[in-house]
Amino acid sequence: MRTVVFDIDTQRDFLEPGGALYVPGGETIVPALRRVLRGAHDCRVPVVASMDAHTTDDPEFAMFPPHCVAGTRGQEKLEETVVGPIRIVGGAAPAIEPAADETWGLEKRKLSVLEAPAFDVMFAALRPERAVVVGVATEFCVRAAALGLRERGVEVVLVTDAIRSVDVSAGERALAEAGAAGVKLIGVDDALRLIREGGACGSADT
């Protein structure tokens, strides 16, 4: 089954204490994120990393404090979540032949990775049948990615050790909603097993 790892918004402003829109405890999932992303790299499973890239006057800032403004340190991916080469795609992209060991960094200005300008090009190129989803925040961008991919007919698994919510109750409601839509909840070890099945390696448990 064609497997793609979706790495949702693992950026400094969300995961570093003191970040502009810090997800409480976000730094605690970094080791799990690293295991999943390293496993994908070792097994040559593609990684799609969504990245907020806002303007200084972004309309989203009426709902959330300013964060991940394009070109700032806070907008950068946390270095532990970059495994191997990464291709940052800011706008609409022409047809691209993807490399199996390359991360696609899809910049976006809305909650869902599916609304990134380059998403449809990526989706057509990779044709994912299974999505392994990690990142933040559970009740916002992770939820949007999981439900949007299910609507596209993709089998979706959420790695519960590698996601984090802003509000625990809201995160639990988002997981329940995702489960009702057919999203499976798994741990890191099971995620690595699926990555091995969907890739080309001997062992991804690093």
Give your account of this protein's structure.
With 206 residues, this protein is an alpha/beta fold. It has one domain: Isochorismatase-like (Rossmann fold, 3-Layer(aba) Sandwich). Helices cover 31% and strands 20% of the residues. The protein is built from six helices and seven strands. The protein has helices at residues 12-15, 30-42, 119-126, 138-151, 168-180, 188-198, and strands at residues 3-8, 47-52, 86-89, 103-108, 130-136, 155-164, 184-186. A seven-stranded parallel β-sheet has the order 3-4-2-1-5-6-7, sandwiched between helices. Helix 2 runs parallel beside helix 6 and helix 4 runs parallel beside helix 5.
Q: What is the β-strand count? A: 7
User: What number of domains?
Assistant: 1
Please report the distance between the alpha carbons of the first and last residues.
Answer: 22 Å
Question: Which whole number gives the mean pLDDT?
Answer: 93
Measured by DSSP, the beta-strand proportion falls in: 15-25%
What is the tally of helical segments? Answer: 6
User: What is the succession of H and E elements?
Assistant: EHHEEEHEHEHEH
Highest CATH level, the class: Alpha Beta
Which oligomeric state applies? single chain
- Overall geometry comes to globular
How would a crystallographer describe the biggest sheet?
7 strands, parallel
> Taking Cα atoms only, what radius of gyration do you get, to the nearest Å?
15 Å
**CATH architectural name:** 3-Layer(aba) Sandwich
